[in-house]
């Protein structure tokens, strides 16, 4: 979203308002965005602890704090994902008549999103199911998809060259994100000799498992070692890995789903089984569209991983999944949400749903 806003003529100044938890402050500052912080933490569990008492106190203290920050910054508009930090911010924004766009990336909105949706002026959602769930808020709702990086920034040939992959080698990208990546690492370790006989493997291990992955690679026959590329993480090269891949095996986070569909990549999804079932719902929608196959977390092992690569050797199935992914994808989601934010910031009428759909669909055309 920051990229999309900064690409506009007369780009607005951006300020990030967050809580005291997580990596966001460092990441946002590194992106050149000013950071302000509220007293409350982001809310990520319902564990019984001292925070069960302190969090309501922090929330109460954060409403006047948010009001003071908004009074100083005087934002023309607010864009929020509707999480816990948004509650005091949007309560404070109402009396100041600061317009708000709330974007929800999951098919099942969480509690904080359902609460803050009533305080927004427009809602942007990644899934129709989320729009239905938030209908009670009575706000204009747009199906935008999930804002993602510019997937046209690198070609497939360039991506393959950057990763030193043969131009025509069937390639699978395996990554578990930040949640329960050990399940993926164990499956890769057990399946590796069979995998490299069939495909090239790009595997994001996480920092702690990277050394073990390198050891496993060295135990492969010399002629097969280049077929296995473990990485502790992929940041600058993540887009190249996605563009180079013929199949993605991963979780069903909103950004993962958005990127693989924007690029038209078939996917085998292993939904993270916790977090209120958000990933399961995301995965079911993608599978229903024909763009993915689902493997339950407790059923994902070496055999399931090897079986997943069968897609690459069934050309009709692979082509059908790729086409379904492209139909589902909305590569211009960031620009679609930006159009809503700027319309409110400039006190113009909101775009129509048809206009937003065209923006969301057409940016990568």
Quick structural summary:
With 365 residues, the chain is α/β, with parallel strands linked by helices.
Describe this structure in words.
There is one protein chain. With 365 residues, this protein is an alpha/beta fold. The protein folds into 2 domains: 2-148 and 331-362, Glycogen Phosphorylase B (Rossmann fold), CATH 3.40.50; 156-328, Glycogen Phosphorylase B (Rossmann fold, 3-Layer(aba) Sandwich), CATH 3.40.50. Strand 1, helix 2 (24-30) and strand 2 (34-37) form a beta-alpha-beta unit. It is built from 16 helices and 12 strands. It has helices at residues 2-6, 24-30, 51-73, 86-93, 111-116, 128-133, 156-162, 182-198, 210-218, 238-244, 254-262, 278-288, 302-308, 315-328, 333-345, 353-362, and strands spanning 15-18, 34-37, 78-80, 100-104, 122-125, 141-143, 171-175, 200-204, 228-231, 247-250, 267-269, 292-294. The radius of gyration is 22 Å and the shape is elongated.
N-to-C order of helices and strands: HEHEHEHEHEHEHEHEHEHEHEHEHHHH
Strand order, sheet with most strands: 9-8-7-10-11-12
Question: What is the CA-based Rg, rounded?
Answer: 22 Å
Main sheet makeup? 6 strands, parallel
The shape, in one word, is elongated
CATH architecture of the largest domain: 3-Layer(aba) Sandwich
CATH class category label of the largest domain: Alpha Beta
Separation of the first and last Cα atoms: 19 Å
């Amino acid at each position: 979203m920051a990229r999309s806003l900064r690409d506009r003529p007369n780009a607005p100044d951006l300020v990030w308002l967050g809580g005291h938890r997580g990596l966001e402050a460092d990441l946002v500052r590194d992106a050149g965005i000013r950071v302000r912080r509220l007293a409350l933490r982001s809310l990520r569990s319902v564990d019984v602890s001292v925070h069960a008492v302190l969090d309501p106190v922090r929330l109460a203290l954060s409403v006047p704090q948010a009001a003071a920050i908004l009074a100083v910054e005087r934002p023309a508009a607010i864009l929020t994902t509707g999480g816990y930090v948004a509650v005091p911010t949007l309560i404070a924004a109402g009396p100041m008549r600061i317009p708000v766009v709330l974007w929800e990336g999951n098919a099942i909105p969480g509690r904080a999103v359902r609460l803050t949706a009533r305080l927004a002026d427009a809602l942007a959602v990644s899934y129709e199911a989320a729009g239905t769930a938030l209908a009670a808020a009575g706000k204009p709702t747009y199906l935008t998809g999930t804002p993602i990086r510019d997937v046209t920034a690198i070609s497939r040939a360039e991506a393959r060259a950057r990763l030193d992959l043969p131009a025509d080698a069937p390639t699978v990208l395996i990554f578990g994100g930040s949640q329960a990546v050990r399940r993926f690492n164990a499956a890769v370790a057990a399946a590796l000799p069979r995998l490299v006989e069939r495909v090239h493997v790009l595997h994001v291990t996480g920092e702690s498992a990277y050394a073990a992955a390198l050891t496993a690679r060295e135990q492969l026959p010399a002629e097969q070692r280049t077929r296995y590329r473990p990485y502790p993480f992929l940041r600058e090269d993540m887009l190249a890995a996605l563009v180079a891949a013929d199949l993605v095996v991963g979780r069903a986070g909103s950004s993962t789903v958005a990127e693989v569909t924007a690029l038209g990549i078939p996917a085998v999804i292993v939904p993270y089984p916790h977090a209120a079932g958000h990933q399961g719902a995301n995965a079911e929608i993608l599978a229903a569209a024909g763009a993915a196959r689902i493997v339950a977390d407790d059923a994902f092992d070496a055999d399931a991983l090897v079986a997943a690569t069968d897609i690459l050797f069934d050309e009709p199935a692979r082509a059908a999944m790729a086409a379904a992914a492209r139909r589902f994808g909305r590569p211009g989601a960031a620009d679609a949400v930006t159009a809503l934010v700027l319309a409110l910031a400039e006190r113009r009428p909101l775009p129509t749903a048809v206009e937003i759909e065209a923006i969301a669909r057409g940016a990568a055309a």
